[in-house]
Structure formats: structure tokens, C-alpha cells
Amino acid sequence: MFSLQTIFGQGKQFYALFNEAADAAYDSTKALHAMLKAAERSPSLEPFKHARQRERVASDKISQALVESFITPFEREDIEALGSALYKIPKQVERFADRYALAQHRLVNIDFAPRAAMLEQAAGVVVEMVAELPQLRLEKMKALNDRLRVIETEADRLILELHREIYSGDLDAGDMFLLKEFFEIMEKAIDRCREAGVVAYEIVLKNS
Length: 208
Hints:
Radius of gyration: 19 Å
Structural class: mainly alpha
Helix content: over 70%
Distance between the termini: 20 Å
Number of helices: 7
Strand content: under 5%
Order of helices and strands: HHHHHHH
Largest sheet: none
């Protein structure tokens, strides 16, 4: 009879791939924060493309491992859900960066950096949560999940402040539409981090 230790040991490749995916997502948020802190410079999109490529490779390997593996460390649908949630983070971040590079000249008076800092913090917590998965420590994971919720709440507050810019009456219709699009992309990026954290937490909740 296989022990639980033996069974869970069969899933080491999944843990490594999840770590790689989470790291790639985190790197994309760090690149975005750095770009928005140096708004006076011409932005480079290479870090975002590189992070997306790393994420895509990890995602493809997770899908392939699911096909090839008889034993998985937890339910297959949970593996798919976590892989999908992690994949969406750098995708959303790159979407923001691409549009920012095109519209930077119209955003000189908008400081996105504090919101990008919250996004980076959220992605950092996701990295910690993914790294915790092999241990299945519910108390530790709950503490990380609570931290992520606090970050999300604070980020929502900051984004709400930005929305006041939209409805201040000082902007023309074109600028209002543009800013609303950027706020929504940033908010979705933070939501993607939250979704990944929830999946990781629920995995531990089910298996601890």
C-alpha cells in the first residue's frame, strides 16, 4: 500500500511548475510597478513578454503532466483551476503594459504606481501560497489568504480614489473612457491574484 507521503511525492513536478508559474506572474507585476514608477521613461515591453512566455511554458507543461500522470497530488480539476488562475495574472498585466505604452502621453498626470505596488504585493503573497502547497498547513495558508484579502481591499480603495478622477468633471469624454479602461484592467489583475489565492487556499482546505 502506498503511504500518503509516497503518493504526494509523485506530484513534485506539479509543485515545481506551479512555483515557476507563480514566479513568472510575480515578475510581471514587479516589472509593471517599476515601469509605472519611472513614468517619464519610454516603457519597455520585453519583461512582460518574457514573463508571459515563461507562464505559457509552465501552463503547457502542467497540461501535459496531467495527461501523463497517473497519480496527482490533488484533484485534477484543482490543478487545472490553479494553473488557469496563475496564467491569467501576467496576461492581464501585459494587457495593461501594452496599452500604457501606447497611451502614456495622455496619462502624465495619473499616478498608477501605488496601485501597481498593491498588485505586486498581491502576486508576492500568491508566490508564498503556492510554495506552501506541499506542506498542506491550513493555519499558515489561512494567514496568507487573509493577507491577500487585506491587500485586495486596500487596492479596491485606491482604485476607487482613481475613479473620482473620472467623475470629477475635469476630463473630456475621451480621457474618461481611457482612464476607465486602465482602472478596470488594473482591478482585474488584482482580482486574478485573489482568484489564484482562493484556489490555493481551497486546495489546502480540501486536502489537509
